[in-house]
Amino acid sequence: MQDHRSNLFRVFNEIGIIHQLATAELAQRLPDGVHPSQFGLLSNLSRLGDGKTPKDLARAFQVPKASMTNSLMQLEKRGLIRVEVHPDDARKKLVYITDAGRKVFVDTVAAMEGPIAEIAADIDGLVDILPVLERLRIKMDAARDG
Amino acid sequence: MQDHRSNLFRVFNEIGIIHQLATAELAQRLPDGVHPSQFGLLSNLSRLGDGKTPKDLARAFQVPKASMTNSLMQLEKRGLIRVEVHPDDARKKLVYITDAGRKVFVDTVAAMEGPIAEIAADIDGLVDILPVLERLRIKMDAARDG
DNA sequence: CATATATAATTCGATATCGAACTAATCAAG
DNA sequence: CTTGATTAGTTCGATATCGAATTATATATG
User: Fold this and answer.
1) Fewest Cβ atoms closer than 10 Å to its Cβ: which of A61, A99, B10, B53?
2) How far is A87 from chain B (nearest CA, A)?
3) Which residues lie below 8 Å from residue A20, measured CB to CB, with a gap of 6+?
4) CB contact under 8 A, A137 and B9
5) CB of B53 lies under 7 Å from some atom of strand C
């Protein structure tokens, strides 16, 4: 029992360390002035579609609105996204990724592919943990709402 | 092949989201003014032993020295650690956790146990991914040094 | 329509992160 | 010893995060 509990803690501990190391790798490959959290936005807009509101994005990334405002301003300043007022509701805005933004995303993904593949080659069963991670994320996400 | 690559990206993506959600849960249960990253320090000093230098700790957590200086100052200000000059080398310092620091650690772990157990109960095979995560972390850690 | 309430986003202030420059102490070479 | 290089830690400045207050717009109610 004690072992099982401490193993659970270790799972989260390892996840934290891996995340930090992965973020550091990513940061090295991003253009100057683009923060890893901002790359996450470009990834979402590029892969899952743009035209979302800042509120949508804040919820998707589980960050406060104020944080999202800041991240979007940085990306807009660099021309990687475009922000428009919602045509039907002037309280809202709509966020679009630009060609420059797509390029940053694509180039960065390409730059990460080598290192990731190299690491993964040595780790047997790495993709096998994906379903477990997905279920865990979904469960934690749901627990947060309630 | 394409699928395999994108699954690798998804593994890291899921890990990032889980880490963020877990950190948010932890933050809610920490005493006011204690940041999750500072809890990590208390955990390390409590579980793995204290009397380490700031340099040691910066390396263990893969953060710059300047970040560690700041974190240690916050913990010391709140009386959760004690910092002394190294008796044999006045350039160095030695960091010790205090009783108050241990109490924060123990209490917070206790407060996290319920939620973690509840989540884990629903996720089949959660602890089974621990060995894979460990190997991944070790591999990435090694890749960073070189 | 007028007013109250709700919602989306920004602003503000406080804290965290961290690269680069700096200070202090030790070590190495002569 | 003395001097140069190295190491540990801090300071400083710039950016990120984010809770609380604020602004602007929209919706609901009388």
Assistant:
1) A99
2) 32
3) B61, B62
4) no
5) no
Estimate in Å the CA B44 to C1' C8 gap, whole number: 42
Mark B113-122 as b/e (b = at least 16 C-beta within 10 Å): eebbeebbee
Q: Which amino acid is at A126?
A: L
Q: Which residues of A touch B59 (CB under 8 A)?
A: none
Q: How many residues does chain B have?
A: 146
Would you state the structure tokens that stand for residue A7, as one six-digit string?
A: 């193993």
Neighbours of A123 (CB within 10 A): 20
Domain ranges of chain B: 2-145
* Minimum distance, in Å, between the CA of residue A53 and any CA atom of chain B: 20
The ipTM assigned to this model is 0.90
Provide the residue-wise pLDDT of chain B in tens; the chain has 146 residues.
567 778 899 999 999 999 999 999 999 999 999 999 999 999 999 999 999 999 999 999 999 999 999 999 999 999 999 999 999 999 999 999 999 999 999 999 999 999 999 999 999 999 899 999 999 999 998 887 64
Distance from C-alpha of B45 to C-alpha of B40, rounded to nearest angstrom:
9
Topology annotation, domain A2-145: Arc Repressor Mutant, subunit A (1.10.10)
Relative orientation angle of helices B54-61 and B65-77, to the nearest 10 degrees? 110
Q: CA-to-CA distance for B6 and A118, rounded, in angstroms? A: 14
pTM of the model: 0.92
Q: Write the single-letter amino acid at B41.
A: L
Distances (CA, A) of A30 to A1, A136, B116: 44, 29, 34
CA of A115 to C1' of C4 (A): 57
